[in-house]
What we know:
By secondary structure, chain A is an all-beta fold. Chain A has strands at residues 4-7, 10-14, 19-25, 32-38, 45-51, 56-59, 62-67, 72-77, 86-92, 102-103, 107-112. By secondary structure, chain B is mainly β.
Amino acid sequence: xxxxxxxxxxxxxxxxxxxxxxxxxxxxxxxxxxxxxxxxxxxxxxxxxxxxxxxxxxxxxxxxxxxxxxxxxxxxxxxxxxxxxxxxxxxxxxxxxxxxxxxxxxxxxxxxx
Amino acid sequence: xxxxxxxxxxxxxxxxxxxxxxxxxxxxxxxxxxxxxxxxxxxxxxxxxxxxxxxxxxxxxxxxxxxxxxxxxxxxxxxxxxxxxxxxxxxxxxxxxxxxxxxxxxxxxxxxx
Lengths: 113, 113
């Protein structure tokens, strides 16, 4: 049972376009949602995160939109750059299970110059 | 600044042979430590976590064990490797009580033949 789902599995955009990566979850107890960026052969790195009390979080070109009612969130990458080409993981954690961070399957993003 | 180092970078091992992977964190006292496993192109699966020396909690049973012999060291091991153990092993630490904000090491790539 996949508690955190991501779509699409892979995404290709042109340089300068906005990439939209989607994430949904099942457990209504999840209250913190970090996104991680992973380049091939490297460990993931925390990119941006949002708490369930917020509906939007911005950090430069990266923005998370959060819909608690629908249990959905999305990561928008504006003005995409070839250097943004990586796999992006949506993750979630609940206060009752503070030791376990649940990851989605990831979205592989390719930004074409 | 905190640094996390994993060793070895890569291993090719035979089925049935033993394995030991290590992780060291510098610059942070009493970190929360985690082991994750990632199949090629797959999601991250949490294996173990530890909040203090000598204490390790298992999240998923994959015929692996973990130990924390020192405050800054986390070891992953098994006496008999299976083909299914192949993948990318990632050590991570978090500054807070939970793993919401994880800092990953470079990873150890394991190929079991």
